[in-house]
Amino acid sequence: MRDPSELRKSAHSGMVCVFLESSLIDLEDYSTLWKAKRVVACVLRCVQKFKSTLTKASMLVNRSPSVEELQQAENVLIRVAQRESFGREIDCLVRGEPIPNNSKLVKITPFIDDKGLLHAKGRLENAPIDFDAKHPIVVDSKSRFGQLLIAHYHTQLAHGPVDYVCNEIRHRYWIVGGKSAVKKFSQSCLVCKRKKSRPSPPMMSALPERRVTPYCPPFFHTFVDFFGPIKVKERRSQVKRWGVIFTCATDSFLRRIPFWVAFFVSEVDEAIQGL
Question: What is the extent of the structural domain holding 246?
Fold first, then answer.
């Protein structure tokens, strides 16, 4: 039998949780940026709930994601997208080295802020505007996040013109190749296709023989049309009259001649006389 003094009086167990942002969510499974942000916000809340359980802290979970949580989720999605598209440039900036000369970000002089987001330098440092407007967040148009971002702005702006959508996006984001990407998305949008569609003109049939036969005298082929009724005063009463119009079907210059006024059905002979 073991000596009781050799037995441990208490045992401690621990758990290590490794949180990888890159494996948090697959944006290919989501059609809108809003849904992706809400899912990431809920996942981040679960992570915080798990940490609070370990530290015996209380946390509300039965509520919709707040504005701060949605903003935090968006920052996570941006960091993942930037790491996938500009991983080499981010590594160079973290080490304090210049980015390669063949990079697409050379002209915008990128830098990393305190949240780990990649921004464009720009020339509006002294402008009295927001930080994201002075230094927009860099996003690749070929990434899934960039496509969802363009779709979000395009829908929110009521499928507006390409320049209008690009201008609103640049208030916070700098999309590499953004104008061509917005134009491509606008061309593939079903709502924009319906709005820009035009009715196709009908196929015209061949002209009848009487219209194309040469050397026919005027009014050899004639169209007749009646219009009315027209009230005409006759003595002390008003009577109805119909007008008749003769049109030459052969000569395009001889369209109309003075019409003959015919009486109503009771005076059919007047109509026959006009013919």
Answer: 218-274
